[in-house]
Each structure stands twice: as C-alpha cells, then as structure tokens.
From TrEMBL:
Organism of this sequence: Phenylobacterium montanum
GO terms under cellular component: cytosol
Keyword terms: DNA-binding, Transcription, Transcription regulation
GO MF term (any one): DNA binding
Designated name of the protein: Helix-turn-helix domain-containing protein
InterPro entries: cNMP-bd_dom (IPR000595), cNMP-bd_dom_sf (IPR018490), Env_Response_Regulators (IPR050397), HTH_CRP (IPR012318), RmlC-like_jellyroll (IPR014710), Tscrpt_reg_HTH_Crp-type_CS (IPR018335), WH-like_DNA-bd_sf (IPR036388), WH_DNA-bd_sf (IPR036390)
PANTHER family the UniProt entry points to: CRP FAMILY TRANSCRIPTIONAL REGULATORY PROTEIN, FUMARATE AND NITRATE REDUCTION REGULATORY PROTEIN
Length: 224
C-alpha cells in the first residue's frame, strides 16, 4: 500500500523536485518524482488519500474495483503519456496496479490545483482531462450495457490501436484476464472471439502479446 507519507519519502528513479520537473502537458512542468512499479504491484488503493496525480512514463497500468462478490471490474488501461488518479474528492474511487513493469511520474494534486488557478492553459488542460475521462467512462458504460462480445472485443482493439505507437497493430501488455475484466466477459469468450476474428481475416495474432489489424475497416463495422 502506498500512502502519501511513503510516497513522499520513497527513493525515486529521478527526483524532479528541482530542475525541469514533470511535464504534465506541453508547457506545464511541475515539481514531482518518478517511481518504478513491478508487474501487478499496487500504485494506489481504493479509498486511499488522493494526494497525487500519476502520469505513465513507460509501461502500462490498470484501474479497477473489486466488487462485493469478489469479481474484479477493470475500468481503464493507462498507457505512456496518460494521466490518471486525479480525483474530485479526497480519496481514490478505484485501485491502480502496474500491468507490466512501469515507470510513473507523480505530481502533488495541490501543485496541479495551484497551476490551474494561476494559468489559463493549465486550467483548460485540467478541464480537458476531466471531460475526456467522463467521455471514456460513458463509452465504457455503453460497451458493457449494449454491445455483444464481438462488438466489445472489436471496440477494445480499435481503441488500443488508436493509442498504440505501432502502425496497424496493437502490443497487448495486459493479459487476457485483464481484457476480460475490462469488457465484462470471460477469458474463454475473449479468446474465442479473437480466434473468430482471426479466422475472418480481420486480425492476425503473431504472438499472444501482439495483434495486427488486417482489416480495420471491417473491424470497425463490427463495432458499428
């Protein structure tokens, strides 16, 4: 468990409290530090104090909640450049863990709030971040509530491809279990759907961690 006290005193990979700082968006650098988290290591827990905002430097993280019956609902995957963990209230609504070994930059929430009050560009960035998060959660609610298994998997692959630095393909740092818990499906259904999409020549799966979108327009048709 990471608390404000342990994070404040933790040995950072790079101490940004002096120097250029952490660039939250182009032109806004704030004092902070970076930490490395190993695969499945907790970054922050649900109901812990939300004293920091987090930005993925490398690797990936997931945010999730464990339901009362023990099931896990993954609500988001965060890739390099993504900012997450910035809350309206005083505590985190979800937990966050490293999907793979990842490096995360941490900036105090109070520093971001001060910047937003003093700088119009920072305020617009913060507004855009909040609006983007709301849009993403609305899309995810629609995915869980109205889409078939094929539509859910197609939507996920298209989203990952849009956010991926690899043209025409997706590098999946997350496991099939992670994907299943994000899409509200079983691992078997995710695997079966991927196999069917490959048989239909919409995707190619050269390895368990890499998927090539052979016919992205056809895949988009599945998500229509």
């Amino acid at each position: 468990m990471q608390t404000a006290e342990t994070l404040a005193t933790a040995p950072a990979l790079h101490d940004h409290s002096t120097g250029t700082g952490v660039e939250m968006f182009p032109g806004l650098c704030l004092g902070g530090f970076t930490m490395r988290f190993e695969r499945d290591e907790e970054i922050f827990g649900e109901q812990e104090e939300a004293d920091f905002a987090y930005k993925i430097v490398s690797g990936a993280a997931r945010t999730f909640r464990v339901l009362s019956d023990g099931r896990r609902q993954v609500v988001g995957f965060h890739l390099p450049g993504d900012v997450f963990g910035l809350e309206r209230g005083e505590t985190h609504r979800f937990s966050a863990e490293a999907v793979s070994g990842c490096v995360v930059a941490l900036v105090r929430r109070t520093a971001i709030e001060r910047a937003a009050r003093a700088d119009g560009e920072a305020a617009r960035w913060l507004w855009g971040l909040a609006a983007g998060e709301l849009e993403r959660l609305q899309d995810h609610a629609m995915l869980l509530g109205r889409k078939t298994a094929t539509e859910r998997v197609a939507s996920f692959l298209l989203d990952m491809a849009e956010r991926s630095p690899f043209a025409g393909g997706v590098q999946l740092l997350m496991s099939r279990a992670d994907i299943a818990d994000y899409l509200g499906l079983t691992v078997e259904t995710v695997s079966r759907t991927l196999t069917q999409l490959e048989r239909d020549h919409m995707i190619a799966i050269p390895s368990s961690r890499r998927i090539v979108l052979s016919r992205p327009e056809a895949l988009a048709g599945c998500d229509a």
